[in-house]
Design brief:
The complex is a heterodimer of chains A (about 300) and B (about 290). By secondary structure, chain A is mainly alpha-helical. Chain A has helices at about 5-15, 20-25, 30-55, 80-85, 90-120, 125-135, 140-155, 160-165, 175-200, 205-210, 215-225, 230-245, 250-255, 265-275, 280-310; strands at about 60-65, 70-75. Chain A contains 15 helices and 2 strands. In chain A, β1 (about 60-65) and β2 (about 70-75) form a beta hairpin. Chain A: Keywords: Cell membrane, Membrane, Transmembrane, Transmembrane helix, Transport.
Chain lengths: ~300, ~290
């Protein structure tokens, strides 16, 4: 209440101050101080590294003529990109991530949406308890989530190896095992996001639907889901970006099973190229291809979201 | 009163659907919590019991021995990992959230050259995967000869474009222009206005940014993995990963990895339970925009 009094008097004076507006346009040094830290960070840790990687991706290390002077960096135009794009190992890594994304995204977001709708239902008790329980895996570091699940998958240690009809650490079982870990980690987080959005759906709208005789399922699918569509699309974009980066799960699992190759996902491919093959040019090229691919895919999802929003 | 009969007629199926809803929520809760319970029970077991007892049953109580071994391993390097994780995440999230709040507030409420461009680049930054950035950051850091230092991990993790995006939304929703105008009339400069008036108004949002940035840094793995080779600089996640690589050859590392994992998880779980009201309302405010 105390802030209201000065606010009202300010509105009156604001009218007279408008005539002096051009003078206030001049940016004060204080404003720059507020903006500068983040602007510098964004430049130094995002823009410059990307620019530098772009530069490095155009070079490769070659031994000079007779090999006396040691390796030299040679400008090779887009050769590194060509090398990555024609590499069978890179193709496999892209296929693995595509299969992972096609399983993980619908399963995780579908599960999150279903749970959020159930939580939002009229008859549910102990909402806080359910939502907190399902959210908790989000707080577990990725490395540790993988360790926990890998032990649960391991023969003689966890129960899952006996229960499942396939070997969760075998070459065919690794993909569903990784999908499960990632789904476990992210479902609760997205459920909370969806549930929070569902709480903002005006209660009168739901009430009038109920009066019209719409059951809970029809209300959920016909009214609630369309109303939180923007939130769902934002979650979809973040999940797509996250899926393409898949790295921690396969890398940590490599400590326990030989079924995950050293280039199982594009991110692992980058890691392998940089730190095992020491081929920085190729690693930089693969990194940038990954960044461009995820930017294009998220742009595509955004296009889809605006189009489906307009067609309604 | 005739309107009561249809609802009464529907009540058995309503009871059934109510049971089904709770059953589904119960299954989801068990799926989420059981692996954590496994971590808790396993941390109390010796190497022998770990593979001979059932996954969720208790063996001999060995937790204190495991923790003792954990802190004794390699001259107590685990203690440094805890300290490092706390430094990276604690210092990083406080400073990072403040930087986000200042910039988000400025974008929402102040006029300065390049405001639109900065916001556009920030949004683009949200979409750049951190994994795709880690290698470029490593290459730059090695050019600047700062690889394998505290700063090589700390500074990149301060950058949180999504935090700026959220802070802008919070500032737009929570800080009325009239209040800022009044402060200007009173002769307060922009810096003081931000710290004494705008920041307190944005508090729930800033706490949410802080908490989620803390989790993001605490859980981060790829950047320390590529930047650091000195175990004294490792955060817990990287240290536990390196120990887990030895498990298949040296099973005695298993209790260390499991007990260490428990210690890495518990503080965050507690923080989320205790600060529930804060982050729930912060997420709500952020999701409106």
């Amino acid at each position: 209440m105390t802030v209201l009094a000065p606010a009202d008097s300010a509105r009156e004076t604001a009218g007279t101050a408008a005539t002096r507006a051009p003078r206030r346009r001049r940016t004060s040094p204080a404003t720059l101080l507020l903006v500068a830290p983040f602007a510098l960070l964004l430049t130094g840790t995002v823009l410059v590294p990307i620019g530098y990687a772009l530069y490095l991706s155009l070079f490769t290390e070659r031994l000079s003529g007779l090999g006396f002077e040691g390796p030299r960096d040679v400008f090779v135009w887009l050769e590194n990109y060509g090398e990555v794009l024609t590499d069978a190992a890179f193709h496999d890594s892209v296929l693995n991530v595509a299969a992972y994304a096609l399983l993980h995204i619908p399963l995780m977001l579908g599960g999150a949406l279903l749970l959020a709708l159930l939580l939002d239902g009229a008859t549910v008790r102990l909402r806080q308890v359910w939502s907190l329980a399902v959210f908790l895996p989000y707080a577990v570091p990725g490395v540790i989530a993988v360790l926990i699940w890998t032990y649960l998958y391991s023969p003689n240690i966890g129960p899952l190896n006996d229960v499942l009809p396939w070997d969760p650490l075998g070459s065919a079982g690794v993909l569903p095992s990784i999908v499960n870990m990632a789904t476990w980690q992210w479902m609760g987080y997205n459920m909370i996001i969806f549930y929070t959005a569902l709480r903002t759906v005006p209660r009168e709208v739901l009430e009038s639907a109920r009066v019209d005789g719409a059951g809970p399922v029809r209300t959920a699918l016909g009214i609630k889901v369309p109303m939180i569509r923007p939130t769902v699309f934002v979650a979809l974009i973040f999940t797509v970006i996250g899926s393409l980066q898949l790295f921690t799960e396969p890398l940590v699992m490599r400590n326990f099973t030989g079924s995950v190759t050293s280039t199982w996902t594009p991110s692992l491919y980058v890691y392998e190229a940089a730190f095992i093959s020491n081929d920085y040019g190729r690693a930089a090229a693969a990194s940038l291809l990954l960044a461009v691919a995820s930017a294009l895919l998220s742009a595509l999802v955004m296009r889809l979201s605006t189009r489906s929003g307009r067609s309604r | 009163m005739s309107s009561t009969s249809p609802t009464r007629g529907a009540s058995p199926s309503r009871w059934m659907s109510r049971g089904a809803v709770h059953a589904l929520l119960g299954i989801a809760a068990l799926y989420s919590v059981l692996p954590l319970i496994w971590l808790l029970t396993s941390a109390t077991k010796s190497v022998g019991d770990f593979s001979t007892t059932g996954a969720f049953e208790l063996g001999d109580w060995n937790l204190w021995t495991n923790l003792g071994d954990l802190f004794a391993e390699e001259d107590g390097v685990f203690l440094s990992w805890i300290r490092n994780s706390l430094l990276y995440a604690g210092l990083g999230s406080v400073l990072g959230a403040l930087i986000c709040a200042a910039c988000g507030y400025a974008i929402a409420k102040l006029d300065f050259p390049g405001r639109r461009a900065l916001f556009a680049v920030t949004l683009a930054g949200v979409l750049v995967p951190t994994t795709a950035l880690a290698l470029p950051l490593y290459l730059l850091a090695s050019e600047l000869r700062v690889v394998n230092t505290f700063w090589a991990v700390f500074i990149p993790l301060l950058t949180n474009p999504f935090g700026v995006y959220l802070a802008r939304a919070y500032a737009e929703a929570a800080v009325p222009d009239e209040v800022l105008e009044a402060a200007r009339m009173d002769g307060s400069n922009e810096l003081r206005t931000f710290f004494t008036i705008a920041l307190p108004m944005m508090r729930p949002g800033v706490v949410t940014i802080l908490l989620f940035q803390f989790v993001g840094i605490w859980n981060n793995f790829f950047l320390p993995l590529v930047m650091l080779t000195d175990p004294d600089l490792f955060p817990m996640t990287l240290g536990l990963f390196q120990w887990s690589a030895r498990v298949s050859q040296f099973p005695q590392y298993t209790p260390l990895v499991v007990a260490g994992s428990l210690l890495a998880v518990v503080p965050l779980l507690l923080a989320f339970v205790v600060l529930q009201r804060q982050w729930r309302s912060g997420l709500a405010a952020g999701s409106v925009k």
